[in-house]
Amino acid sequence: MDAAEAAGPVPEADDQGFPARRAPRCSGLGELDALVTRCRACPRLVAWREEVAEVKRAAFQDQEYWGRPVPGFGPADATVAVVGLAPAAHGGNRTGRMFTGDAAGDFLFAALHTVGLASQPSSVDADDGLTLRGVRLTSPVHCAPPANKPTPAERDTCRSWLSAELDLLSPGLRAVVVLGGFGWQALLPVLAGAGWQMPRPRPVFGHGARVVLPATERRQELHLLGSYHPSQRNTFTGRLTMPMLVDVLREAAALGGLPVSPEVP
């Protein structure tokens, strides 16, 4: 039985308990990813992602949109995770791969390639041959939200997927890069619930934020690194530059025990 068969039938719309019921039972990332793509727990997000997939953007009228939740992307033995916000309506929601097919993804993959964590500097579609080394990309919300703004309820409903994903990665996970304040605020409760001890007061997001969660009986030491999100608003204004993101990813790779490409003078 493959992962898709193990995931079972597509749940009915408005089954808001589907993530919490199924995510903790996953025995591997393949099964988890297959279940994520079947989720219909948030009616507003289901309606939006499917409307976008039908109407499409003019530049992509000849393409078939994915139009479903977008699973994480990267190897199961990743020692570094990158946590964003949610798929873009005409990016991940179109291509079916996290951070693929939009400007934010172009910026991120160029940085990952510079560090040596991505096999190529761009991510065009799910069949472009791109592979990641030692890093997995994910998000707190797996469906494209209207105006790129999930509601707190949608974030909380989707939390079980992120919790299960990090749990499956946890034997080797050493560092997490969080892109933006939304991802930071969504991630902290997940980590606390998973058994990591959270500092008090709770860490505040900022570019360059560095937090070490100490090892416990259940969990090994984990490093959190904050970066501004590579949105066009941030990259066009210079709030986030390529060297800034590369520096964060290079540090995360070192913490994760991954060899990195040498810095170019």
From TrEMBL:
TM helices/strands, residue ranges: none
Annotated segments matching region Disordered: 1-21
SMART domains reported for this sequence: UDG, UreE_C
Domain Uracil-DNA glycosylase-like span(s) in chain numbering: 71-249
Assigned keywords, A-Z: 4Fe-4S, DNA damage, DNA repair, Hydrolase, Iron, Iron-sulfur, Metal-binding
CDD domains for this protein: UDG-F5_TTUDGB_like
Family recorded in the similarity comment: Belongs to the uracil-DNA glycosylase (UDG) superfamily. Type 5 (UDGb) family.
Protein name, entry field: Type-5 uracil-DNA glycosylase
Species this protein is from: Streptomyces glycanivorans
Lineage: Bacteria, Bacillati, Actinomycetota, Actinomycetes, Kitasatosporales
